[in-house]
Design a protein that fits this description.
The protein is of the alpha+beta class. It has helices spanning about 45-60, 65-80, 95-120, 120-145, 160-180, 185-195, 210-245, 250-280, 295-310, 320-330, 355-360; strands at about 10-15, 35-40, 80-85, 85-90, 150, 155-160, 200, 205-210, 285, 290, 335, 345. The protein has a ten-stranded antiparallel β-barrel, surrounded by five helices. A two-stranded antiparallel sheet has the order 1-12. Strand 3 and strand 4 form a beta hairpin. The longest helix is centred in the C-terminal third of the chain and has 33 residues, at about 250-280.
Length: about 375
């Protein structure tokens, strides 16, 4: 299948031979192009709890050395239980390579920690170096994760360069600083566009078609909704206070503060929900178009209730919360399929190392699409 978006200097190779995680070709059903297909997630909280608790115990016993194997087990569980038209996803990263990357990342972190004790100048230099390395870290992490992600027998591929990563980084910093944070949604749009517009599966290219005003609306609508709701509630409580003499002003003030706290806690989850919806409803892969029937209120409630569940359970409900969120996200996605997945061809690419990804984990950089 020809695709005008594929780089002419990149060599295409045929899909790899089937593995035990790929459905054999003869078992795969024919695909009717032009129809809408849904994603499915078959994992359960009870299954994932077993993986999660074993990972934690082994990381404690091995003083953290088991972390790469824990990461691979977690990713393979989520990927392997995500299906699209009878084909599943897979993560093929090797724990041994991730371990090497983690050891190097820990060494870098140790040097910076020592510098903090002995020299403020060295500490500032180290933190500045990490800050300047953020674009490289993000780009390398996405490239490593894409290289080791598969749909059926077809690998993902990230074509972003360090030049484009640093260009995006500088634009995000400039937009955020010069507008005093008011145009933070534009920075998020720039980051999403950089990630999506350089991502491929096989030879098919993803593209984010949304513009920056869509992200402004996505993030600021919950704020305006909150302000409007609080104004209406304050007016209603004031009217009730004037009409009834039974309750004192402190009772109405208490009701207002409770409503204010609940509404305030919903603002960030609603922003995340609207960014998710805006992004996926505006994403295409070659000629095929993604859509989502995700409800912003349901999405926000899942986030907020997951927070509460993890706090109340002292973290024991973390696997349940992770499965609950991922299942809702994946099963809300639909793809109007125009390009046949049987015609995917892998792009020839190098086997990248995991150093940047481990540095991102250690310095708590959230690298997500």
């Amino acid at each position: 299948m020809q695709n005008s978006d594929t780089y002419p200097d990149q060599i295409l190779e045929q899909p790899e031979a089937s593995t035990e995680l790929a459905v054999p070709l003869q078992a795969q059903p024919s695909v009717d192009l032009g129809l809408q297909y849904s994603f499915r997630f078959k994992g359960t909280a009870s299954e994932y709890f077993g993986i999660w608790i074993v990972n934690i115990l082994l990381m404690i016993i091995t003083l953290g050395l088991y972390a790469p194997w824990a990461k691979v087990r977690r990713l393979r569980y989520f990927y392997g239980n995500t299906w699209f038209i009878q084909r599943r996803f897979d993560f093929t990263g090797l724990p041994s390579k991730i371990l090497m990357g983690r050891l190097i990342a820990l060494a870098v972190y140790g040097v910076i920690s020592l510098a903090m004790k002995y020299s403020a100048e060295l500490l500032l230099a180290g933190m500045l170096l990490i800050f300047l390395a953020v674009p490289w870290l993000i780009r390398s992490t996405i490239r490593f994760r894409a290289r080791n992600s598969k749909f059926g027998n077809s690998r993902f591929f990230f074509s972003g360069s360090n030049k484009s990563a640093y260009g995006c980084f500088l634009k995000c910093i400039a937009v955020t600083l010069f507008t005093l944070g008011l145009f933070l949604p534009v920075a998020i749009w720039l980051y999403k566009r950089e990630c999506w517009n350089h991502l491929y599966v096989g030879q098919l290219k993803f593209k984010l078609n949304a513009d920056w005003p869509a992200y402004m609306r996505a993030m600021y609508m919950p704020v305006f909704l909150f302000i409007g709701a609080m104004a209406v509630l304050a007016a209603a409580l004031a009217m009730l206070f004037n009409l009834s003499g039974g309750l004192g002003a402190e009772h109405y003030a208490g009701l207002f503060m409770i409503a204010y706290l609940v509404g305030y806690l919903f603002i960030w989850p609603l922003m995340m929900a609207r960014i998710f919806i805006t992004s996926w409803n505006s994403t295409s892969i070659s000629r095929s178009q993604f859509t989502t029937d995700c409800s912003q209120w349901r999405y926000a409630w899942i986030i907020l209730s997951n927070w509460l569940a993890k706090i109340i359970s002292l973290g024991l409900l973390t696997p349940w919360a992770a499965i609950r969120m991922y299942k809702y996200q994946s099963e809300s996605l639909k793809l109007v399929l125009v390009d046949n997945p049987d015609d995917l061809m892998n792009q020839l690419q190098q086997d990248h190392n995991a150093i940047a990804e481990e540095l991102s984990d250690i310095f708590d950089l959230d690298i997500s699409l």
